[in-house]
Write a structure and sequence with these properties.
Blueprint lengths: L3 H8 L4 H13 L2 H10 L15 E2 L7 H16 L8 H13 L4 H9 L5 H10 L3 H4 L6 E5 L4 E6 L2
C-alpha cells in the first residue's frame, strides 16, 4: 500500500515545493514505504522539478541548494529504476558538482540518497562518487560553472 505522503505529493506535483517535500518524505520513510514508492513509480508523471542548471544558486525561489540537490538526486534515482543508468551519468555529474559548488560534501549527499536505494541505483551513485576527480569534473562532461550575482553558481553546458 502506498503511503499517504506519496499520494499527497503526487496530487501536488505541479507545485515547485512538492518535489523537495517528496524527497524529504522518501528519505525519512521506513524501507517498506520507500520500496512501495519505488515499485509504483510512474516515470511518465510530470513533476515541477528544480532547475538542474541552478541547483547551486542561493537566489532560487524554492528550497535551499541542499534541498534542491537532494530532491534532484532522489528523482534521478527513481527515474533510473526504469531506464539505462548510462543515461543518468551527465545528470550525476551536474548533481555532484552542484553539491561541491554549494559547499556541501558531495560524497555525503550522494551516500545519503544512495542508502535509500539498495541495488543498482545506489550502486551507480556510489560508483560515480568513487570516480577519479578528473572523471567526475565539470570539464569531463563539457560543462562549466559561472558565479551568479545573487550568490552561488550556475552550471552551463558547452554543447
Amino acid at each position: 500500500m502506498l503511503p499517504d505522503w506519496y499520494r499527497d505529493r503526487v496530487d501536488e506535483r505541479t507545485r515547485p515545493e512538492a518535489a523537495i517535500e517528496l524527497a524529504a518524505d522518501f528519505l525519512a520513510a521506513p524501507e517498506g514505504e520507500r520500496q512501495a514508492v519505488r515499485a509504483a513509480w510512474d516515470p511518465h508523471l510530470t513533476w515541477t522539478l528544480p532547475n538542474p542548471w541552478r541547483l547551486a544558486c542561493v537566489d532560487e525561489d524554492t528550497g535551499s541548494p541542499a534541498e534542491r540537490i537532494t530532491a534532484a538526486l532522489v528523482f534521478q534515482a527513481l527515474a533510473m529504476s526504469s531506464g539505462d543508468e548510462r543515461d543518468a551519468i551527465v545528470g550525476l555529474a551536474i548533481l555532484f558538482n552542484s553539491a561541491a559548488l554549494a559547499r556541501l560534501d558531495p560524497f555525503a549527499v550522494f551516500e545519503r540518497v544512495a542508502a535509500a536505494f539498495p541495488g543498482r541505483e545506489g550502486d551507480t551513485f556510489r560508483r560515480f562518487a568513487a570516480r577519479r576527480p578528473e572523471d567526475r569534473s565539470l570539464a569531463a562532461f563539457l560543462l562549466s560553472a559561472s558565479a551568479q550575482e545573487g550568490g552561488g553558481f550556475e552550471i552551463r553546458p558547452s554543447w
